[in-house]
Amino acid sequence: MELDILNECKNAGRIGISGHVRPDGDCTGACLGLWQYLRRCLPEADVKVYLEKPADIFSELKGYQEIVTDFPEEAPFDVYFVLDTSADRLGGAEKYFHAAAKKINIDHHVSNPGCGDVNYLRPQVGSTCELLYDLMDRDRMDRDIAMAVYTGIIHDTGVFQYSNTSPDTMRKGAELISYGFDFARLIQETFYQKTYVQTQIMGRTLMESICFMDGRCIVGSVDRRTMDFYQAEPRDLDGIVNQLRNIKGVSCAIFMYQTGGQEYKVSLRSDETVNVAKVAEYFGGGGHVRAAGCTMTGTFHDCVNNLSLHIEEQLKALCGTVSS
Fold first, then answer.
1. Which residues on neighbouring strands pair with residue 199, listed in sequence order?
2. Residue 235: pLDDT band by 50, 70, 90 thresholds?
3. Average of pLDDT values for 13-34?
4. Nearest-5° angle of CA 245, CA 250, CA 254?
5. The domain containing residue 167 runs over which residues?
6. Which of these, 283, 204, 220, lies nearest to 252 by C-alpha position?
7. What is the spatial distance between Cα 47 and Cα 133, in angstroms, rounded to a whole number?
8. What is the mean pLDDT of residues 300-318?
9. Which of 176, 192, 208 is the last residue of a domain?
């Protein structure tokens, strides 16, 4: 059954929108796209986005400067949207979700069982922004809404390269660019372009990466000391795991960066030979078959060894014997 966004928000005076911690392009585009759409269609409603500050590369999206990033105390919302995640990854915004009169969850992650009173979950669709585009009235969209939605689609489909790109995705992309924004510049500046620091730390990670399992798996990592040396933030590490996966012969890439004494944020990418969502879920994370993540504790070697057991199990089931 299709979700009627505007009908669900009928008579709502206060509407909140949030996405997951460390918001990526799909999360940011979805939150800002929906924020613009609801403000345009429901001018009497007070609509706010609560989100950890997204990367500066998304600053040209309308509403970026309006994002509330400090999660102050708020009266309960009439309607609260959770986009591109389940409630347990909302960070500081989770309190707003639980207090809301009506909760709506829109997501495309296969690991999300649904956390709202109303759930619109379509794991076969490539991005949450593509889902939102399906739910929006085209006649009520404008250039800025289209730009935000397009941003999410290109980021979660790898600019229409990943297998989650369907013919419908391509058609929607064509419809979106007809609204007249500079899509070529948007792709370059938000997906491909890197700062000098980002390029340096990526180069160092690639140089120090390790291949194993007959070259089918690769791991790269950045420790806290290296982060401090480059004065890097987690957002400066975006794209490293994808570059590791691009290496010829690699079926599964692991990228880890240290967030605490013995704590690592882990990103996994696959060519679908390995279902990395299944691996991540075992360690309390989640995602998609090709892209997933989790947080792990232990030394670097502990984390790699534990991940390897589950990756190797899948590779052996498909390919037979795999050397460590």
1. none
2. confident
3. 97
4. 55
5. 5-192
6. 220
7. 19
8. 94
9. 192
